[in-house]
Amino acid sequence: GNDPKPPVECVLVTGGAGYVGSHTVVKLLEGGYDVVVVDNMSNCTQNEKTSQPESLLRAQALTGRRLTFYGVDINDEAALDAVFKKASFTTHSVDCVLHFAALKSVSESCQIPMTYYRNNVAGTLALVKVMTDNNVKRAVYSSSSTVYGTPQCLPLDEGHPTGQGCTNPYGKSKFMVEEMFKDLCSADKCWRVISLRYFNPVGAHESGRLGEDPLDTPNNLMPYVAQVAVGRRPKLRVYGDDYPTSDGTGVRDYIHIDDLAEGHLRALERMFSAGLDGFRPYNLGTGKGHSVLEVVQAFSEACGKKIPYEIAPRREGDIAASYCDASLAKRDLGWAAKKDLKEMCKFL
Ligand code: NAD
Ligand code: WQD
Prior knowledge:
There is one protein chain. This protein has helices spanning 19-30, 54-63, 77-90, 106-111, 113-133, 169-187, 221-229, 257-271, 292-303, 327-333, 341-344, and strands at residues 10-14, 34-38, 68-70, 96-99, 138-144, 192-198, 200-202, 236-239, 251-252, 254-256, 278-284, 290-291, 309-312. The chain is an alpha/beta fold. The strands form four sheets. It has a seven-stranded parallel sheet with strand order 3-2-1-4-5-6-11, sandwiched between helices. It has a two-stranded parallel ribbon with strand order 7-10. The radius of gyration is 20 Å and the shape is globular. The structure holds nicotinamide-adenine-dinucleotide and UDP-4-deoxy-4-formamido-beta-L-arabinopyranose. The site of nicotinamide-adenine-dinucleotide has 29 residues, from helix 1, helix 5 and strand 5.
């Protein structure tokens, strides 16, 4: 018989060519949604022949479905408006926006803060303007555990204060956008925003065709370890072994990209159901913390190679430990992470 149509049919995905976006796009296509991606390709590989992002070509090849891509910057209101108008002309109007587009390097944000505020904060203002003009008032926002700043208690739940101790422009930009969405939702009751506070996303698609492979020196632990494993870098520097944690190294709540992507589908389903209104933040993490050395050990076991490392000084701005209470997402969205550290270390 006919499958029931999902309540959300057409999803516009900003930053859909990126790491988290492209994995989510695969799930959206698999779920039967119409997908429109807007990405300025500032942080993705462009396929020379088609001039589309490589990740999106692969997402379509993996699923056997098509999406619509626009190489547009979210700060370009006129171009973005045209995308919304075209979408409503060719398919039907956009039901909801998944908003991934942002710059995300903590260190770079300290060098060029205005570029980060323009892209992440002003970019979101432009997006909201165009959405409002087109009467689209549903958004799922890619937020971050960074909005909690320095944890006052662990595990972090959604009631933990935000914005205090956000030490870098990137983190502040993620916090500012949450505040904007909160104010928007209280001013206009038609708006619904689900803010997904990701903990530390890692891992790759099971096909081996999608993942995170930064061209520059990786800032984040997992891609760095992966590059050491394949011999592209000689050794890992472990930033500090004198934190008040089990083995002295930093503890984080790593979450598999596949689980994270799944969380966005649950959020979309919840978006149009009854009893959800205003601004809703949800942690997306496993609720379990792992130290740097635990990650090194797990990775080493997964690839059967030793990962050489040395203890280095603490990295400025780092916190000792961060992990979440993931029960709200379970209760409200019916979502829980399934994959453990071992699976996160499997890079095909
Ligand atoms: P990513 O860099 O892989 O993806 C972001 C995408 O957005 C890229 O394809 C980039 O080209 C695009 N983009 C950037 N600025 C744009 C603009 N002005 N207009 C149009 N497109 C633009 O990053 P990611 O890891 O996939 O992160 C996605 C979102 O998740 C970001 O909002 C990030 O802040 C958030 N987040 C990421 C992590 C993480 O560790 N990866 C953790 C927490 C939150
Ligand atoms: C993890 C642990 C490091 C690299 C960052 C952003 C955060 C969020 C996710 C988006 C820490 C240690 C790392 C290395 C190391 N992004 N480490 N050697 O700092 O928890 O979070 O990415 O919102 O906002 O700040 O992630 O992967 O950089 O570090 O020892 O070469 O690994 O000190 O304890 P982090 P990370």
